[in-house]
Amino acid sequence: MEKDTSVADRLARMKVNYTKEGMRTSFEAILLVQEHNHPHILLLQIGNTFCKLPGGRLKPGENAIILFFLLFSSKLTSKLGANSPALVPDWQISEAVAICWRPNFETMMYPYCPPHITKPKECKKLFLVHLSEKEYFAVPKNLKLLAVPLFELYDNVQRYGPVISTIPQQLSRFQFNMIST
Q1: What CATH number did the domain enclosing 80 receive?
Q2: 23 and 123 Cβ atoms separated by less than 8 Å
Q3: Which family does it belong to (predicted)?
Q4: Rounded to whole angstroms, how far apart are CA atoms 7 and 12?
Q5: What is d(CA 83, CA 12) in angstroms, rounded to the nearest whole number?
Q6: What is the pLDDT of residues 9-22, one digit of tens each?
Q7: Phi and psi dihedrals of 118, rounded to 5?
Q8: Are 51 and 30 in contact (CB under 8 A)?
Q9: Which residue from 45, 43, 40, 69 is spatially nearest to 54, judged by alpha carbons?
Q10: What does DSSP assign to residue 119?
Q11: What letter does residue 60 receive in the DSSP assignment?
Q12: Which pTM does this prediction carry?
C-alpha cells in the first residue's frame, strides 16, 4: 500500500524524515513499453490523483553501488512483482537517465543543485529499466498501472509533475527501435 495519498502528505513525511535521517536519496524506474507502435511509460497512479514512477529510497548508510542495484531490483519486485517464485521479473537496470534535486520541501525539483543550497532535501535518480518481452506485474490495491504515451508527458507539468513531464527530453538522447508484432 502507498503511504501517501497526496503530494502534500509525501512532502510532510519527507520533512519529518529529513530531521531524523538527512537528505533523502531516491531512485525511480522509467519502464518503457510499446503500445500501438508508440513508446509508453508505465506509471503508478494513486487513486485518481497523482502519478509516480516505481522506485524507492536508500536508507542512511546504504550507498554502495552494488547494494544500490540489488536494493533497486528488490524494491521494484516488492512494488510490482507478481507474488510467485515462478514469475520473478528480470529487471535490467541501465544507466542513470537523470538526476533531480529538491532544494526545499516543495514540489519543484531541479536538474542541478542550486549553488546557494548547502543542504538539499532530496536527490532523485531516474534509471531506464529494460523489461523482457513478457512481464507480469502485481499492482497494489490503492494504485493503478498506467501506460502513458511518451508524447502526452511532454511539458505536461500540471498533470504529471515536474519530474515525469521531463522524461521525453531525458530520453531524447536514446534511439529506440520499435518492433512491429
Answers
A1: 3.90.79.10
A2: yes
A3: Belongs to the Nudix hydrolase family. CPSF5 subfamily.
A4: 9
A5: 31
A6: 889 999 999 999 99
A7: -100, -20
A8: no
A9: 43
A10: S
A11: T
A12: 0.81
181 within some domain: no
Taking only the tens place, the pLDDT of each residue in 102-146 is 999 998 899 999 999 999 999 999 988 877 777 777 787 778 889
The answer to whether the CB of 163 falls within 8 A of the CB of 126 is yes
Indicate whether 1 belongs to any domain: no
Task: Name the residue with cell 538539499.
Answer: 120
Cell of 34: 510499446
Q: Which domain holds residue 11?
A: 7-171
Q: Does residue 100 sit within a domain?
A: yes
- Distance, CA of 79 to CA of 108 (rounded, Å): 25
Average pLDDT, the chain: 83
Q: Which residues, 6+ apart, have CB-to-CB distance to 50 below 8 Å?
A: 6, 7, 161
Evaluate whether residue 143 is within a structural domain.
yes
CA nearest 7: which of 54, 41, 46?
46
Q: Is the dihedral of CA 124, 63, 5, 107 positive or negative?
A: negative
